[in-house]
Specification:
By secondary structure, the chain is of the alpha+beta class. Helices cover 31% and strands 39% of the residues. It has one domain. It has a six-stranded mixed sheet with strand order 3-4-5-1-2-6, sandwiched between helices.
Length: 111
Amino acid sequence: METGRETARTDMETYLNTWLAGLNVDVDGTEMMVYYLVSATDLAQAEAGVMEMGRTWWPALKREDDRYRWEYPGGVVWFDSIVLLDDVENSILRGLKFLDAWTVTGAPTRP
């Protein structure tokens, strides 16, 4: 028998949306785009998860600008883009198996 907590967890997993998040990474003057599939209940939670990833990209964060740009001794990371995927886009990108996929849990203030 499912308890209310188990039902809520199952419902939350059922209603996760997936975004394609892009981060720009600059290492020694060489810029590259890095993309992730991010699953979360809503845009605020997805953005909070991506910002936490940027904040912890490498050890020893030197500086954070406006919560969307992070400087490290090894380079700089920018939160560049986030796009909500429909079911077909999500299925295709997951099927290619070259993008890391992350699920964000918690609240937008504490992902």
